[in-house]
Request: fold
Amino acid sequence: HVQLVESGGGHVQPGGSLRLSCEASGFVFSAHYMSWVRQAPGKEVEWVAGITSLPSLFRAASYADSVKGRFTISRDNAKNTVSPQMNSLKSEDTALYYCVSEGGLWWGQGTQVTVS
Reply:
């Protein structure tokens, strides 16, 4: 039974920071590229960041232009977690954030981030 459980969302003022976390279970987490996507009200889903499944020495992260330089994604394969550290938050970052496995196969339930 696959589960992706997000946490860490909340309400923060512009310029503030939040750290989201996604805990995975039910599949071989360490073998999967993991992403975070978000959806703001009335807008399409936007890919935010992703991180490869490679060992940490070779691991690579990618970011949408809208968050580059402000968000940092990391993963802990021992704990089956993937986490974006979100700094310098803007009102346009307000959205429901989802943890997504490779290829969009599995999604979490989402965690709300509100910046105002």
User: Anything to note?
Assistant: The longest strand covers residues 95-101. The chain has a mean pLDDT of 96.
